[in-house]
Amino acid sequence: MTSSASTPAYDDLCQRHRRKHRLQHLHAMASWDQAAFMPPGGAVPRAEALAEMEGLLHQLGTDPALKDLLARAEQEPLDDVQRASLREMQRVWRSANALPQSLVESKSLAISHCEHAWRSQRPANDWAGYVENLRPVVRLIREEARLLSESSGLSKYDALLDQYEPGMRSAEVDRVFGDLRQWLPGLIRQVMERQAGEAVVAPQGPFSTAAQRALGLDAMKLLGFDFAAGRLDESTHPFCGGVPEDVRMTTRYREDSFLQSLTGTIHETGHGRYEQNLPRDWMGLPIAAARSMGLHESQSLSFEMQLASHPGFAGLLEPLVRRHLGDQPAFAADNLHRMMTRVAPGYIRVDADEVTYPAHVILRYEIERPLMEGEIEVEDIPALWDAKMQELLGLDTRGNFKDGPMQDVHWGAGLFGYFPCYTLGAMYAAQWFATMRRERPSLDADIARGELTPVFDWLKDRIWQQGSRYETPELVQRASGEPLNTAHFRRHLEARYLG
Amino acid sequence: MTSSASTPAYDDLCQRHRRKHRLQHLHAMASWDQAAFMPPGGAVPRAEALAEMEGLLHQLGTDPALKDLLARAEQEPLDDVQRASLREMQRVWRSANALPQSLVESKSLAISHCEHAWRSQRPANDWAGYVENLRPVVRLIREEARLLSESSGLSKYDALLDQYEPGMRSAEVDRVFGDLRQWLPGLIRQVMERQAGEAVVAPQGPFSTAAQRALGLDAMKLLGFDFAAGRLDESTHPFCGGVPEDVRMTTRYREDSFLQSLTGTIHETGHGRYEQNLPRDWMGLPIAAARSMGLHESQSLSFEMQLASHPGFAGLLEPLVRRHLGDQPAFAADNLHRMMTRVAPGYIRVDADEVTYPAHVILRYEIERPLMEGEIEVEDIPALWDAKMQELLGLDTRGNFKDGPMQDVHWGAGLFGYFPCYTLGAMYAAQWFATMRRERPSLDADIARGELTPVFDWLKDRIWQQGSRYETPELVQRASGEPLNTAHFRRHLEARYLG
Ligand SMILES: [Zn+2]
Ligand SMILES: [Zn+2]
Questions:
Q1: Å from CA of B129 to ligand 1 middle
Q2: Domain co-membership, A126 together with A192
């Protein structure tokens, strides 16, 4: 990433980013350990050590010299990749420098207070208590949105959304979610009618953690995870962390059920392979990072929904399940596939199937956007929630705050503009597979016979190796030949669930 | 550690040290992970991340502002503990600032080159090759010794020794090793004659790693390890790392033998409990750190040799061994004790029993000291080694470099002045237990009935909780009422092996 042309400012910026990247490596590993291995006595000193490092990284990211370096680099003879790299450096700089230190600190305090209280308020269904802590978070994020909006020229909500999905705008989200809203409730009803007559054999547990772990590792091998560049461990909340050269995935096991851990592991494997295959030549620079939250989710959902819930894939899973968990009627490929594609509206987003999941996301988007634009207040959330749950999923959530707006801690953690990415990811994933099928008509047959290389090669070439070279809309166009198109997601669901 | 009196310079120093400590926490965890869990792909970025942090810590430790702060703190109204704390800050500062950056870098390069080549030269018995790489290391450490000697006023070897055992001088090492040299070879012969007629039943393996791990964890529990503040994992080279609030111990397992891992785990547990019980109020300041390498080893050897090889302790181990490894004649307490106290001269220091171990250390001390003082050269090492092995242990090492001076990588790693600490540690440990026995005549009976609290309380009170408040000679005097006295170590060996 340093050219033969004279680009001293750009080169200096590269050095600074690589230094930050090396320090972030230590932060990433300590965070992983915190979730996966740390005994309770380590909690306080670990939190202090991580906070110290965050302060240091913030200091490096707001070094007054950067502004001038970025301006000078702009004038240097950069090639296309370097120019994209500089654009990403500017994005990182804007995001680190948009907010005054006092706002960063107030936000951090309000969030940790809200999150901490939420842990006991949720089980107590204490909306009145929660809303008192959510209000200051909303106030501070609105202030953040205002500042981000001023520096970027975007609307307030768009300025927040742009942090998670660079280049995505709410006008586009409105368009795609508006379309989804038209046909999704009807589709859900149709699928449920159809599945009502379907018999699913229930697996008989318990399934030992050791056997489930071995099964998960075999699934990861099948999906091409590079164990020389990563590991699988356990944590309460599964995640994919670490660094691209050493990806740390976690899962959790329930002895009464193996499917949750297996599909969770497959999901994280999608995140993991994206990270493992980011462009190594640019490593340490922002251009080498995964593009966005929605793109990341498009990879985990490519693995979990497009691949693992594919009817042909169940035949690949069956021998692995039998090898590790023994022989049961439930483990027949067609039964595994039915288990993995069961559709049922429920209160909880994270437990939702791929058909009802978007309803949960649309609901949140339709609340958080007016909330950020100042059109509604936190007190308005429950009534809107109840109405939309009724409308989208036919469920009554009145008075049930803990399984309603208190089920997620995202808003309490200041994450506004983040929810749409889950469903954008699902739609991108459907679009990737539609493109693969168009380019390679044998795709479904290939998957059924275990020939997954074409899928991995496509994702590697079009997504993983691109890093952050393009903003999301351009990446989508280049990868699939068209902008985000909800028709692919709809066709995917109809083919799989009504076909 | 901040008083009501006005001590702004001292307070500033405390803040700086605590900041460094928080960053060192991340370094410690990443180092532990590097040895225990990291896949091979992580090696290069991890090494770079650790090096970046080392550079940053060095920069913080050589901040030009420190010199003035230390001088100003000297004039402030400090209490006794603060004054000791300042003394340790000065020690840390001197050690970080004694060497010019160019020497630090040349040393680091020469060492990694020498260590790397050693890995293949040792198996090839290639002394001629090794000596070419050892020579520049010796040259650079001599230069370091010269600079440290100039800034401290100590002799060159003493200046090196002082880094590992603050306050210890070679005159004192000469005195105690000179004494040891008088009676040790005779004692070894006597013990061997006596043990020649002893029958030891050999355990029948294999012993699964899982069973050995469970046994090791039970031994750690018996020895009071706090699992809320630490863990046991596996690594090729066992060590005790992490931070006092979260100690990361490792061991390794051989399925054909369980005793190595068990005694190794017990050894590291001694290191671990020292760390876990360092004074929390001073945490983050140099005064809260373990006193020295010799003192640390006195804790691991208190656990491994004084306690675990105690005839009464074998009765505590027997039920644990039977619980995890099954019933075998070899697992009877008296047989376990015989296995753990078998004496035999051998080539390899790390495999040596507690009776022959000091001979290995004396030999190294008698070579490294003149080498550092410039009285001999690296070419002289093999002949000296052969002569001393013959003299001390009656073994012929001629031509066998790989089991001779090439067995350890310490010298190649620039560690001169470090070896004496192993045997100083063994002698301190004997002195601690002699003091405990004097103060509590029931000690041996207490140990035999599993009442270990008096031992732990004594160590906690006299050693662990003292941190680095006193230099080693004063700590020894305060803990045991007298200076280091070799008679205790001799009496310990005679009582155990000839009694
Ligand atoms: Zn995900
Ligand atoms: Zn040790």
A1: 53
A2: no
Both structure tokens of B155: 């002799």
Helix (H, G, I), strand (E, B) or coil at B82: helix
Which of A88, A144, A165, A268 is catalytic? The answer is A268
HSE value, Cβ hemisphere, 13 Å, CA-based, for B265: 26
Mean pLDDT of B401-421: 95
Tell me how far the alpha carbon of residue B213 lies from the centroid of ligand 2, in angstroms: 19
Instruction: Convert the pLDDT of each residue in A49-77 to its tens digit.
Output: 999 999 999 999 999 999 999 999 999 99
Q: Which of B88, B144, B268, B368 is catalytic?
A: B268
Does residue A457 have a pLDDT over 90?
yes
Cβ burial of B330 (10 Å; 0-12, 13-18, 19+) is middle
Flag whether B289 is in a domain. yes
Residue % of chain B over a pLDDT of 70: 99
Q: Residues of chain B whose C-beta is under 8 A from some C-beta in A?
A: 19, 22-23, 25-27, 29-30, 33, 37-42, 44-46, 48-53, 56, 226-231, 243, 245-246, 283
Distances (CA, A) of A79 to A280, B86, B416: 18, 54, 52
DSSP state of B356: T
CA of A26 to nearest chain B CA: how many angstroms apart? 6
Q: Do B53 and A231 make contact, defined as CB atoms within 8 angstroms?
A: no
pTM of the predicted model as reported, rounded to 2 decimal places? 0.94
- Distance between CA atoms of residues A266 and A321, nearest Å: 14
B1 falls within a domain? no
Q: B294 in a domain, yes or no?
A: yes
- Does pLDDT of B1 surpass 80? no
Q: What residues make up the domain containing B223?
A: 171-497
H-type helices in A302-397, by residue range? Answer: 311-325, 333-340, 357-372, 381-393
User: Which one of A30, A40, A228 has the shortest CB-CB distance to B26?
Assistant: A30
